Amino acid sequence: MTDSLNNGLEIAIIGMAGRFPGADTVDAFWDNLSQGKESITVYSEEELLKRGIDEALLKKPNYVKSAAKLEDVDLFDAEFFGFNAREAEILDPQHRLFLECAWTALENAGYDSQKYPGAIAVFGGAGMNGYLFNVYSQSKNNNSLDPYQLFLASDKDFLTTRVSYKLNLDGPSVNVQTACSTSLVAVHFACQSLLSGECDMALAGGVAISQQVGYLYQEGGIYSPDGHCRAFDAEAKGTVSGNGVGLVVLKRLEDALQEKDNILAVIKGSAINNDGAQKVSYTAPSLDSQAQVIKDAQHIAEVEPESISYVEAHGTGTALGDPIEVSALTQAFRVGTDKTGFCALGSVKTNIGHLDTAAGIASLIKTTLALKNKQIPPSLYFKQPNPQIDFANSPFYISDSLSEWQSNGTPRRAGVSSFGIGGTNVHLVLEEVVNSEQLAVTSEQLPVTSCLLLLSAKTATALETARENLVNHLKQYPELNLADVAYTLQVGRRDFDYRGFVVAKDNEEAIKQLESSFLTHSSTSSSYRPVTFLFSGQGSQYVGMGKELYDTETVFKQEIDNCCDLLQEHLGCDLREIIFAEKETGDPPPSPPY
């Protein structure tokens, strides 16, 4: 294997977005990780009873009142994405969050999908839709919903294609479902799509939102007896259920360099395989298959195992899974080195629990942030190694405290693993951006001049929030080049009706202007128009036409009632009795006296 030059298979990560337990942004996620914070919620009995958990279940000694919850799942800006109230009400929350996260990820990468000339793909997957049971349980919906409409709003098949439709993306749009490894497999397929030329940019990730707020512990199962995940520890007995969503924006490295993108990390290689039947059971992991997928990824990346100094493990903290995973990693690394104790090992599940279909993307985002910050965050609750794991004779040690990530003369490199129930394994090799030829040419080379900072939003309140966010961002990152900020705001953001701007020559002046003299303007011209129902009178009407709309849509009912009330004096009859008359097999209802 070579270990210095790019081989043309590299993929750049140029944007990220995510919402995880205890963190509504990737920056907040990193703060929690670097501080060694666990984001597992322990519920009181009162809270669980309010959520509908049976009191008899709560009295069981093995009921664990813990879960890694996600805040504000019910807050969805339906109008922003063009959904009416009924559509938003029945839409799987996983689809809502995935769509919002896709928009945010593209903005983080500095792109507006309407302005980008290339093809943008979407690869992703979602967990089981528990929300559908809530929709069915509401009797008002059972009588008025079109089953096909409910199917479109709830089925996994439409997760990625809905994003492509709402954001106007014309690259491949593919759902991926491989259980726990779903989102990292989605990243692998996105890389393959980019390398084959099917697309120019790709969104990849996953989402998992469940209703679970506790569980019954079963010895030998996947869930922990006390609501904590102790990956690779002697006391490890399982993990905790979690919720989250994450997406990365990917490009071919050469394209990202040419287009001067902000490259967060580089995917040097990725590989997937399956365990097949050579294992104890369908749900059991396979040592040899895991080792093989790691070796394959390293071979594709053309890097030596010794150059990898961190691995973000699948790390579920189970008695069976942890020893097999470390043995597989050791087997893969031993192909290239006999050294011991040089590679840190961690698991994000100790912080946020097991995110099911979103577990792999959480691991990838964590590792990308670690490379960006040149720090290795701690893996929590590690005191003594699992006696079934021979760490002393392996390349690995547990990263149990925040540490500086030493480069040792080579680029910082990491591995990321994700393994799915059923045996689909995936492994990625990541590298930091260090070489001067990999760094985009920035506007620091341009003469210092005043910059026009533009903001736009769909509403006046949203514009005010955008202004506050920009102020906070400039304060948090004073090293930002203002010309780069101005360029992204002009080219990489959608143009909406409510707009504002300031002119400044540096960050300090920009903050001052934004806080004191932010000039705003609202435009009445817009390509968006509300839906209008027009009954054209060409003989296509029938008795009962519009009855479902009349019964379910408040605005429609108000307008029909208003028109019928106005006409009643002139017609001498109530049109509602005619147009909404019950259908009979006999004579048709009387015609109005026109």
CATH class of the largest domain: Alpha Beta
Number of strands: 20
| SS-derived structural category | alpha/beta
What is the number of domains?
Answer: 3
Question: Sheet with the most strands?
Answer: 11 strands, mixed
Mind telling me which CATH architecture of the largest domain this is? 3-Layer(aba) Sandwich
Average pLDDT over all residues: 90
The rough form would be described as globular
Q: Could you tell me the CATH topology label of the largest domain.
A: Peroxisomal Thiolase, Chain A, domain 1
Q: Please report which band the strand proportion falls in: under 5%, 5-15%, 15-25%, 25-35%, 35-45% or over 45%.
A: 15-25%
Q: Count of helical segments? A: 21
Rg calc: 27 Å
Please give the alpha-carbon distance between the first and last residues.
87 Å
Name the CATH superfamily classification of the largest domain. Answer: Thiolase/Chalcone synthase
Ranges where pLDDT stays below 50 over 5 or more residues in a row are: 436-444
With strands numbered from the N-terminus, the spatial order across the biggest sheet is: 6-5-7-9-1-10-17-16-11-12-14
The proportion of residues forming helix, as a percent range, comes to 25-40%
Protein name: Polyketide synthase type I
Domain Ketosynthase family 3 (KS3): 8-432
GO molecular function, one term: 3-oxoacyl-[acyl-carrier-protein] synthase activity
Keywords: Fatty acid metabolism, Lipid metabolism, Multifunctional enzyme, Phosphopantetheine, Phosphoprotein, Transferase
